[in-house]
Amino acid sequence: MPIVVLSEIRTNLDGCGIVGDFAGAADALVGSLQEQSHPAPAQLVWLAHHGPFSYYENVGDETFTRVDLKWDGERFHGSYAEQHLLSGTNVNRLLSGVELEPVPAVLAQLGWEF
Hints:
This protein is α+β, with helices and mostly antiparallel strands. It contains three helices and six strands.
């Protein structure tokens, strides 16, 4: 199962956080990949990723939330009721041992600040 991890970064404009419109963020990502080969949108498993890089204040450790989106053939749909905070065990099971690079390092490689 293909998994997409969207990480919230603290420099997102107010009101533009990923969880507030996760379906819109998913649509934007899938739209940007249309020219590339990728799995069918309905097959994707979506995770929202938060941590010290997400907020200016200290909110603690990293968290992962599974966001169950529905694909209607053109766009994604979802609601807060379809967001599920995952335990560390469930995250490890979903990622099958894949280690994510630290968000600050990835942003530095992209030339972004957070």
